[in-house]
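Hi there,

I know you've been waiting on this one. I reran it after we fixed the sequence typo, so this is the corrected version. Both the input and the resulting structure follow.
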Amino acid sequence: MRNALQDQLLKAGLVKDKQVKEAQKQKQQTQRQQPGRRAPQASAAQRQAEAAAQQKAARDKALNAEREARAARKALDAQILQLVQQHRRPHNDGDDPYSFVDGSRIKRVYVTAPTREALARGEYGIVRLRNRYFVVTAEGAAAVRERSPEHLVVLNQDAPASDDAAYAEHPIPDDLMW
């Protein structure tokens, strides 16, 4: 846009149209290059909106992390269930109770005599999944331990021999009835 002075100078013939355009172009360039130009300050409403957006982003991030953790737990439970199904041994078909400690409580499953002996020798283990107990092979119990040690309840392992000769004559039985 031209101002009135430029129009008057053009009519008088003192400047040419090309010179006016160059002057406008230089004016625009200098305005762009000025370092002192500032953006208008944000109002209080804009600052509150930005703070609310940041809070929402943080809340969304926490919810996503919780959702991912839930999905990871669900995937782990699915893996444990698959391992239990592959290595499961029947245990509710016997009359002999096998007692074991789960946390601070004493639990029991009913097994046959050979299964009870295998549990005592460490050939079988007991896994807790979804508030139920399953008798699995030692390989299955070891695989469960690798993925989630809190699911493995019982896996008897051979204890290292002690050097104490006084107790060598008195072995401790693993199959005591409680």
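Quick highlight: The chain has five helices and six strands.

Best,
R. S.
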